[in-house]
């Protein structure tokens, strides 16, 4: 009675299993056993389907020990003509577990009148499928594979694929390779090799995969690659994070061309990634050649890889070859898209060839003939052109282009459009026009962003409207548009420049309270401003905060601090900063040494200054004009004109650094003050002979000396020289000449000089 009830339940369960759709895991398993997107198996004929259902029902209702004695089952399974392997495959697949499937396989093995082992390959495949879906599948599959060799049951192609892929996913790749090596050579077709290559690449066994692939890529290969091979190989080699050695671009290019000989080409996405990698590595010629070879092989190319080459050429500013590539695309019937034209327009704008960029825009929508292409420009293209126009100072044309975009193309300006225009007007000082555009964008419902805010704040600060910038910033903050580190850096630098250090510090504190992510630049800006104001304790506090924020001071930051401490005569503090630089592994530069040389020269410690200069040279650093200038100026201030002139002569003869106008001015002024006016005049002749242009300060210094000597003739010649070199007199010049020439009755010459006429005469 119990047996009957159990059999009834099993029968109902069986019918339920037969009628419901296959489980997801079963469908996934079918995917693993065949090529991607396989042709679906035709449904069994109605009479065969009923036999399959009947056989499965009998197997489930009958204990497997009694299968051999069950006449209905035996006659169904071993009728004449014999059942097809496909029929047995379907029966085995529908059994509820791998153990029952294996029992059924053994029943067939023991009772089948056919001695052909191939007959049993298909139900054995189904056993493997069942085992692969169950827990501890690795152990079960390994045992079943060993059993197949012991029983001499050859694997089907799908069974081999299943085992290779399953072991690969279980990270038992050695077993996958063993199965392939032991497989009958006739079964090692393209599909099996594809799966093996995929498993090998995923495990990082790149060279093994390439060896398998090499046999497929031979010119007369019996197992040539197909599109699936290409997808597996190019995906496996181009993706960034993968195991195994990385192939060079040259190796990948060779593979692409070998595949091409078999009319297998990488998908556009993989090819574009390869071309992009080549271009970013500076190998634009190789990228160009790859496309040329693929064109020769008649590859179905699209615009994307050509766009990658165009981008690379654009980065190097090679507009000529960009045009050549566009011609190549046209001749090869490869249709450019909006990105293609956008890249060209962007590069032309960067090269300030805005008129040519406008011509490209005008041609984009004019394709009429069969050879022409009509591509509508998008908002990005228009924004690029508007920005290009603004960058070359043609803001009004940018405004007109925005109206054209709006009215004729139906494209509404966005935040980027307005930001470009606002930036253009702010750069040329038309702040009010920029604010008008800001008001207009709000009226049109275009939301300003932090770039809009930063653009207007920067424009106001650059043109001396720092208070207005702060007021605008506070207003935007109140309306919910928060600033970022760039905003605060701009404002802090601007207030430091107008010596309003307290406001700069307030802004810095506000930045830290706001939760805004401060960058190193904002710290550097405040440290520089505090050092210039002589507030070294505050500068040191900001330096501490900079370190607490996780930033490392750079050489420029340390130099500002050293200079600040030297100006405050706190040389011990300057040495502490120097020590900190050394401990941080940072090398001092010319600025550092020049600061120290200037300090020691200023306090009259010339011996120390020269030792610092000697150390500077020993470090491989070349003294600059500032180095010599600091020493020469200090010698002159200390009245030691002889040493100053000696250093000047050494600079002119030994050093490769020529003296500049500032150094000549220092010496000429000192010579005149020490009643060496004739020597000062010869210094000025030397200056002009060496091509160093005198400025108003030079003339003022020597005119003072000539006035003391009352050497009018030399003064007139100098006045003529100022006229000749368009060196305009300043109030000091006029003060010297007015007092002197009025006293000697030469006021007319002063009038002529002011009017730009020469004043010297042979008599004079």
Automatic annotation (TrEMBL):
PROSITE patterns the record matches: PPR
Highest rank taxon of the organism: Eukaryota
Alphabetical list of Pfam families matching this protein: PPR, PPR_1, PPR_2
Keyword Repressor: no
Biological processes annotated in GO: mRNA processing
Keywords recorded for this protein, A-Z: Repeat
Any single GO CC term annotated in Swiss-Prot or TrEMBL for this entry: cytoplasm
GO molecular function, one term: mRNA binding
The keyword Repeat is assigned to this record: yes
UniProt PPR repeat ranges: 302-336, 337-367, 378-413, 414-448, 449-483, 484-518, 519-553, 554-588, 589-623, 624-658, 660-694, 695-729
Similarity field: Belongs to the PPR family. P subfamily.
Protein name, UniProt field: Pentatricopeptide repeat superfamily protein, putative
Native organism: Theobroma cacao (Cacao)
């Amino acid at each position: 009675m119990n047996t009957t009830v159990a059999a009834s339940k099993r029968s109902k369960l069986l019918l339920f299993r037969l009628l419901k759709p296959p489980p997801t895991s079963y469908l996934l398993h079918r995917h693993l056993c065949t090529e991607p997107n396989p042709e679906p198996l035709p449904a069994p004929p109605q009479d065969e389907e009923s036999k399959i259902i009947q056989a499965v029902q009998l197997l489930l209702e009958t204990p497997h020990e009694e299968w051999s004695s069950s006449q209905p089952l035996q006659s169904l399974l071993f009728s004449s003509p014999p059942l097809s392997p496909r029929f047995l495959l379907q029966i085995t697949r529908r059994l509820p577990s791998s153990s029952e499937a294996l029992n059924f396989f053994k029943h067939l093995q023991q009772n089948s009148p056919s001695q052909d082992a191939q007959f049993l390959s298909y139900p054995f495949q189904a056993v493997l499928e069942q085992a692969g879906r169950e827990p501890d599948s690795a152990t079960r599959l390994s045992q079943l594979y060993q059993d197949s060799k012991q029983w001499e049951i050859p694997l089907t192609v799908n069974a081999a694929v299943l085992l290779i892929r399953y072991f690969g996913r279980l990270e038992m790749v050695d077993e996958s390779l063993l199965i392939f090596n032991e497989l009958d050579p006739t079964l090692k077709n393209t599909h099996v090799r594809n799966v093996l290559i995929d498993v090998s690449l995923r495990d990082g066994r790149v060279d093994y995969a390439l060896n398998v692939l090499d046999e497929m890529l031979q010119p007369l290969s019996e197992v040539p690659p197909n599109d699936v091979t290409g997808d597996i190989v190019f995906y496996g080699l181009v993706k960034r994070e993968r195991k195994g050695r990385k192939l060079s671009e040259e190796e990948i290019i060779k593979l692409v061309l070998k595949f091409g000989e078999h009319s297998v080409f990488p998908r556009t996405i993989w090819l574009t990634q390869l071309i992009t990698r080549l271009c970013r590595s500076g190998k634009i010629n190789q990228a160009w050649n790859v496309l040329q070879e693929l064109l020769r092989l008649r590859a179905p190319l699209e615009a994307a890889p050509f766009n990658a080459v165009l981008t690379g050429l654009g980065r190097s500013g090679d507009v000529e070859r960009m045009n050549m590539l566009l011609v190549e695309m046209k001749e090869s019937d490869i249709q450019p898209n909006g990105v293609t034209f956008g890249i060209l327009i962007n590069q032309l704008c960067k090269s300030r060839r805005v008129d040519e960029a406008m011509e490209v825009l005008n041609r984009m929508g004019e394709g009429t003939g069969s050879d022409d292409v009509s591509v509508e420009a998008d908002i990005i293209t228009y924004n690029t052109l508007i920005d290009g126009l603004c960058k070359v100072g043609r803001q009004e044309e940018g405004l007109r282009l925005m109206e054209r975009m709006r009215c004729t193309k139906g494209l509404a300006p966005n935040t980027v459009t307005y930001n470009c225009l606002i930036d253009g007007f702010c750069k040329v000082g038309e702040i009010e026009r920029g604010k008008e555009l800001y008001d207009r964008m709000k009226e049109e419902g275009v939301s300003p962003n932090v770039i809009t805010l930063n653009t207007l704040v920067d424009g106001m600060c650059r043109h001396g409207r720092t208070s207005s910038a702060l007021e605008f910033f506070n207003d935007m903050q109140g309306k919910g548009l928060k600033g970022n580190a760039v905003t605060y850096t701009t404002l802090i630098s601007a207030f430091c420049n107008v010596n309003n250090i307290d406001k700069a510090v307030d802004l810095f504190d506000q930045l830290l309270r706001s939760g805004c992510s401060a960058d190193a630049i904002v710290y550097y800006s405040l440290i520089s401003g505090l050092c210039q104001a002589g507030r070294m304790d505050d500068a040191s506090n900001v330096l501490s905060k900079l370190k607490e924020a996780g930033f490392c001071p750079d050489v420029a930051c340390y130099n500002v601090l050293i200079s600040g401490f030297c100006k405050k005569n706190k040389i011990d503090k300057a040495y502490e900063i120097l020590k900190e630089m050394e401990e941080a592994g940072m090398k001092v530069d010319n600025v550092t040494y020049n600061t120290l040389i200037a300090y020691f020269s200023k306090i009259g410690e010339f011996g120390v200054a020269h030792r610092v200069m000697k150390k500077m040279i020993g470090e491989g650093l070349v003294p600059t004009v500032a180095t010599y200038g600091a020493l020469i100026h200090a010698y002159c201030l200390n009245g030691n004109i002889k040493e100053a002139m000696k250093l000047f002569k050494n600079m002119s003869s030994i050093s490769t650094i020529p003296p500049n106008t500032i150094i000549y001015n220092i010496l000429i002024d000192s010579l005149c003050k020490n009643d060496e006016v004739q020597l000062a005049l010869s210094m000025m002749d030397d200056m002009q002979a060496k091509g160093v242009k005198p400025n108003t300060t030079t003339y003022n210094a020597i005119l003072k000396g000539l006035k003391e000597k009352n050497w009018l003739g030399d003064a007139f010649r100098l006045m003529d020289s100022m006229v000749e070199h368009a060196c305009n007199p300043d109030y000091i010049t006029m003060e010297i000449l007015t007092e002197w020439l009025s006293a000697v009755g030469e006021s007319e010459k002063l009038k002529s000089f002011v009017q730009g006429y020469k004043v010297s005469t042979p008599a004079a």
